[in-house]
Amino acid sequence: MRADARRNRDLVLRAAQDAFAEEGLAVPLDRIARRAGVGPGTLYRHFPTKEALFEAVVHERLRQLVGHARESAAAADPGAAFFDFVAHLVREAAPKQDLVDALGGAGVDVRTAVSATAAELRDEVGRLLAAAQRSGAVRPDLTADDLMTLLAGVLHALRAHPAAPMDERLAVSVLCDGLAARAVR
Questions:
Q1: d(CA 157, CA 152)
Q2: pLDDT in tens, 105-155
Q3: Which residues contact 55 (CB under 8 A, 6 or more apart)?
Q4: What is the pTM of this model?
Q5: How far is CA 6 from CA 3, 30, 46, 52, 126, in A?
Q6: Which residues, at least 6 apart from 175, have a Cβ–Cβ distance to it below 8 Å?
Q7: Quick one: 110 and 177 in the same domain?
Q8: For the chain, is the Cβ count within 10 Å smaller at the N or the C terminus?
Q9: In this structure, are 80 and 147 located in the same domain?
Q10: Looking at the structure, do residues 177 and 132 belong to the same domain, yes or no?
Q11: pLDDT tens, 9-54?
Q12: Phi first, then psi: what are they for 74, rounded to 5°?
């Protein structure tokens, strides 16, 4: 890909990330093109459908989360790294309608297109969880699938009532308190 084409693609992706995060899937592609400072033809050359653009946005967000999870795994304190990552994931995903839709299985069906990256994220989260469990910071009876389900539930709860949104910090605090080893009864 030529440098100008790559730059235009990146501009469209960034504009789409912001637009999907603010407005969800209903945002018109022409509005995304305007936000990116490119013409509609440029947008359609790179992403022939809204679904293709949405998939690319979700794929990029998941790759960023995978990278953050890998960085977290290198931390000296596995428990703190795990809880920091959980908070980061919720903080990043909660206000972004597109990622929440993908994680919750709502909206456009992008599961097949991003399934490899989503599986990679689950694997990295599983490694963080296992290390935190070995360190004694996280309850031992929790599986990675359990954790992903809980995270999806928290993300859904955070956007369930837009008129009276739940406090994100409270949701993370309650979730992390329940995940802590001391919560096992």
A1: 9
A2: 444 455 566 788 888 999 999 999 999 999 999 999 999 999 999 998 998
A3: 108, 110, 113, 114
A4: 0.78
A5: 5, 19, 9, 16, 34
A6: 86, 90, 150, 151, 154
A7: yes
A8: C
A9: yes
A10: yes
A11: 999 999 998 898 788 778 899 999 999 999 999 999 999 988 889 8
A12: -85, -5
The Cα 79–Cα 103 span in angstroms is 24
Identity of the residue numbered 82: F
Q: Are residues 19 and 66 in the same domain?
A: no
d(CA 78, CA 75): 6
- Are 20 and 92 a contacting pair, CB within 8 Å? no
Angle, helices 50-73/29-36, rounded to nearest 10 degrees: 60
Interacting residues of 52 by C-beta distance below 8 A, sequence separation 6+: none
Q: What is the CATH number of the domain that holds 14?
A: 1.10.10.60
Whether the CA torsion 20, 153, 146, 170 is positive or negative: it is positive
Only one residue has tokens 């990679």, namely 120
Cβ-Cβ contacts under 8 Å for 106 (sequence gap 6 or more): 100
Structure token pair of residue 97: 């309608």
Tokens standing for 25? 């899937």
Question: Cα-flanking dihedrals φ and ψ of residue 106, to 5°?
Answer: -100, 170
Task: Give the Cα separation of 161 and 5 in Å (integer).
Answer: 40
Note whether 29 and 43 are within 8 A (CB). Answer: yes
CA distances, 40 to each of 3, 25, 59, 164 (Å)? 19, 17, 22, 36
Are 19 and 1 in the same domain? yes
| Pairwise CA distance, residues 37 & 24, whole Å | 20
